[in-house]
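Lay summary

Proteins are chains of building blocks that fold into shapes. Our project writes down both the chain and a compact code for its shape. Here are two examples, one after the other.
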Amino acid sequence: MKEERVNLSNVDVDNLINATKQHFQELGLQIIHEDKFENYWSIKAYKGGKLATVTGSIRDVEVLVTGANNNYELTLRTGAWGRDIAIPALLASMVSLGGAAAVAAAEVYRAHKFEKNFWDWLNKQVSQISSKATMSQPKIISPDTSAK
């Protein structure tokens, strides 16, 4: 699972969360879980089905927002793109040896395109929510490998 994070300030988080849910649904993702606690919001969405499982085109997306006092962190977690490359690559390799690499490259490109489009969309949403709202550049979060 890949994680990227931005810092947000002066944002109406409830409004942003509702807009994010609508955006995911417009992309054909199904909201499968939501949480809201004090200073914490979470949305999990999914796109797939039986055929998607076989072809490896399942998509998992999670958005987490934490913080208070107009200072928040929004984390985008995307998964299944990398995890599910093996099945379509295997299917493609049955057709041609170069097919596996092409399928893997296409899946990586699709994941990158989704993430870039999400950050572009989010930047526009933040600007529309408030003229005082700000958003930092996305940063990839490395998993903590020190804890074993």
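And here is the second example, written the same way.
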Amino acid sequence: MAGLHSVVMVRILVTLAIMLFAAIACNLSDERPGGTPVSDNGSNGPPVTPVSRPPSVPADALEVKGDTLLGEIERRANQPPNGIDTRALLTAACQDEVMVLWTDAETIHASLPCDRFWSDETVRDFSSQEVAIKLTVDATRFQIFVETLAGGQAEFTVGGIWVE
């Protein structure tokens, strides 16, 4: 009887190990459960040197010189996320090395090589989502962090940020 008990325990341990490895593998994928997008577009790269205002950035767009929160999403265990002053991301594009995010509250322009911008599919995934956007500026780095209420996230390291 003790031998049968040992075999059952070994099978249970092997099953638990397989489930653990499967969970770890799911967390390493580029997409979260439920299809919420996660995008890393060179945000972990080396610090950048600020660039001059690109010609396509409107003259009335203000240069961002400090950290700025455009909405916020509070997340608490066992509760739905709470959007505070969030905005709708209408769409986004990149042309001539300038990324543009259009929201229902402002337009954000940022210097970014377009090969580090979203694919068309990712633009569709993030568009029409309720978002909070964090603009981080320090002496050597400019970052844009976009988070959707549904849990999608994207971060860009850019050469400069302007908002209109």
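What can we say about the second shape? DSSP finds two helices and twelve strands in the chain.
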